[in-house]
Amino acid sequence: MSAIDISGVTKRYGTELALDGLDLTVESGEIYGFLGPNGAGKSTTINLVLDFIRPTRGDVRVFDLDVRSDSLEIRNRTGILPEGATLYDRLTGRQHVEFAIESKAADDDPDELLERVGIADAAAKKAGGYSKGMAQRLMLATALVGEPDLLILDEPSTGLDPNGAREMREIIREENARGATIFFSSHVLGQVEAVCDRVGILRDGHLIAEDTIDGLRDSMPTQTRLRVTLDRIPDDSASALEAIDSIDGVSSVEPEGRTLVVACEDRAKTTVLRRIEDYGVSVEDFETDESSLEDLFVAYTSDSAGSAGVIQ
Amino acid sequence: MSAITVAKKDFRDAIRSRVLIGLTVLFALFTVGGAALASWVSGLFDDASAQSTIELVLTLQAPAGFLVPIIALIVGYGAIAGERESGSLKFLLGLPHRRRDILLGKVLGRTGVVAVSIFVGFTIGLLGLFAFVGSVSLTDYVAFTAVTILFGLVYVAIGVGFSAMTRSTTRAAVGALSVVILFKVVWGIVGMILLSVIEGMSLVESPPDWYLVYNAVTPDAAYGSAIGAVLNRTGPTVASAYDISTVPLVAEPWFGFVILAIWAAIPIGLGLWRFDRVDL
Q1: Which key words are in the record (chain A) (predicted)?
Q2: Into how many domains does chain A fold?
């Protein structure tokens, strides 16, 4: 059985097309990473699953139930961490968790949940005084109430330091081990690669790729990261960057002082170096790194993705 | 059940608002002022029953009639639109609550908050009555409190209704403010204009029925009627204002309760209809 089944869903806001015929299936028991740059339609998709918004066309089902007519049962069995956690400033952390417990008619111990997300010491403090990371942890605690069958986490690492993000991943793994399906969105691949069974990449309202991390890597042309140190910054640096970015096979260019970091396919390397020298500067030094998954993700979602030939 | 859970949470949240505390203090000042005024004014009447009525009206009804709508609308207008703006509505609706439970829970929770404000204001008014007037009927006081809470519920419903129909608190606030202006200013002026146009006179001995009805259908007038009904004596009702024996059904004191119920139902109904369909 699939936990989430989205078929042929289009969502239009006025003239703006947020989702364009999206098909997506999350299998029961898996950890699904939902990736895409900001504005790709990730939150729109999650809002549809939760019946916060209604599709213009298409069908959304959760636990094989209709999201519209059976929304209450779906939300009873689902834990949600909405994007950009917003809390009730005048209520304490414990009151938030108690409210979630009462709403779900669950029998969890609020203090245990707060302990689990690492904010037990702030349980009696008003949420208005919480840092972003603490607010995010509190939202996670409320999402865990009632041992949900499905956890939907929208950008869960927002506001968390690396340690907090690691603890978040640990909890995700524990919940998955208990049997919960996890669906979580992020615009940073690094956060999903460590935990996800499968990843879907959304861009401009389409799912442009869906596979395991290894599968995605295999489907990509070999990516290289070039670090090129120049003797000086070229006079016309903006147009130089643009010229390099437009080379076939280059997915991103980042200047770091006199050093350029270029993510590209192997075959484009020489072209990049030649193009740099066209701008009257000489290359003092250059090194190549193995491609990171981040480059892979950028390659999928940047404008040159089409020329990289990765669209499914 | 779900609405009660939402109401309890909402009450806990909203009762801590500083604006509410400020408004309640203002309300208490009005009731104490009213009590002081009452001790002076009621001396002008010989009839004990008229005295006691005028004391209660000046101490409780006049301040409540003026301030309860304002407190209730301020407490109500942000109830849903505010959570939509901040994003906490996604937390609320992420939990298994129907949208109608949210709206009804908000109306109940915020009415509770307004009730506390009324209770504080009236208790201080009561102390004022004891201090300045010396005696007061506790039965009347309790009846006054109950009807005033109902009156508060009507305006909370109007505020929350606006809040459910728009995604911006600014628009909800404009809606709430328009309601205050409509019932406190425009309604009376329009009535006078209609009266002089239709009947060709502005000062009347015995006003026509339609005018009595027109003046009885606002929530504020209905509050006065309902108070008159529970006190079971000549309060500031339409009948007593014009010294006539028969009034249309709508202007009967007990009908005030019906009018209050309608004024609560309309915004709740419209709010439910809109909020249930809209994208968050």
Answers
A1: ATP-binding, Nucleotide-binding, Transport
A2: 2
